[in-house]
Amino acid sequence: MSSPNRSWHELGTSGRNSYRVSETMVDMRRPQVATRTIELSAQPQNLLIDLARTALIVVDMQNDFCGEDGWVASMGIEFPAARAMVEPINQVAAALRNANVPVLWVNWGVRPDRANLLPSTQHPFNPHGSGPGLAGPRTTAQHSYNVLEKDGWGAELVSGLRREPGDIWIDKHRISGFWDTPLDSILRNLGVTTLIFAGINADHCVYATLMDANFHGYDTIMLEDCVATTSPDFCLAATLHNVRFCFGFTVTSSQLLEAVGAKSSD
User: Fold this and answer.
1) Is 2 exposed, middle or buried (0-12, 13-18, 19+ CB in 10 A)?
2) Which of 144, 175, 184, 263 is surrounded by the fewest CB atoms within 10 Å?
3) Do the Cβ atoms of 74 and 136 come closer than 8 Å?
4) Rounded to 5, what percent of the chain is helix, strand, coil?
5) Is residue 263 flagged as an active site residue?
6) Are residues 89 and 11 part of one domain?
7) Range of the domain at 124
8) Which residue among 66, 172, 203, 219 is the active-site one?
9) Same domain, yes or no, for 216 and 91?
10) Alpha helix (H) ranges present in 40-193?
11) Which of 66, 171, 205, 226 is catalytic?
12) Lowest-confidence segment of 84-88, 142-146, 261-265 by average pLDDT
């Protein structure tokens, strides 16, 4: 049935979920992706995972939350812990990219007209109604922009983080990155089943997105030293406990880098 002279074209996500098509034929057989197993020292148990079915999710590492001139800083909240994660996240992202693992940035990026922002969503960001709130105007000595607005300065990655052309960007407008976003459909199109989480706040957006990932059927791993929060220390401790107890596993970036490096040298 096949013809050596048939001209084939690929439709879909190359190497992961695609057809081959010609003028007369559609080949619906998906690409077979070879398993690439690594062993991780993790809590509460060690893990074997398949890098071919894994993605890195980095949550909310953006100017308004982490930047020295950002919206959170304007409230007198110092967040050096977030800025200290820039290099560890860069190292993890680079190692995983080199292993052909997708890197996804999931950040607040709200509509300027706030048309899909419920009062309950806006309230935590403007509890007294007198602040700019989500998509509200803010002016500093260096920047004039709207808070956490899609494509604005506040929604950009904090200085020092390296986003590469092949990375995937997801705008969100809820605490969870899954609610009313294309995150789930993108991950399923990539053939991903295991998600590694980094970012801030560990006990808010990272945790909510990780829990939703668990509810959607993904396996979830939190990078202990690549998450941080402005909440009291016990909140981070409780988050790590709950991830290990109910929703997945935790590892350190050094443990992950060691495992990925060992696989790369095979």
Assistant:
1) exposed
2) 144
3) no
4) 35, 25, 40
5) no
6) no
7) 33-264
8) 172
9) yes
10) 63-66, 71-74, 80-84, 86-98, 119-122, 183-189
11) 205
12) 261-265
